[in-house]
# Entry
Amino acid sequence: MEKIRKGDQVVVTTGREKGKRGTVLRVLENKVLVEGVNRAKKHQRPNPVKGLTGGIVDKEMPIHISNVALVNPATGKGDRVGFKFLEAQKGQEARKVRFFKSNGEVVDV
# Structure
C-alpha cells in the first residue's frame, strides 16, 4: 500500500515548483506525475497513423514522491501520512487505512 495514490490532491514541498497543487495522474516506482506541475516542452513529430499533429507540446514530467505531500482538507496544507488498522466489524477483518499525522483523520474511508 502506497502513501500517495492516483487521484490524490498533493502539494509540492521542494524545488522550483514549490507550493503548486495538483492531482496525481500516475504513480511510477518512486515518482509521480502531477497535473500541471513540472511541465516541459517536447518537440513532437507528426504521426498520421495515431492522428497526432507535430509541433511543440507541453508535457508533465515525473517528480520524486518525497517532494510532494498529501493535502489535508481540514487544514488546506500538505501533511504527512501514516498507516493504521481500523477495528474489525462483524464478519470482516481489520482494514489498513491511511491517516493524517497532524490530526489523526482517516484519508480513505
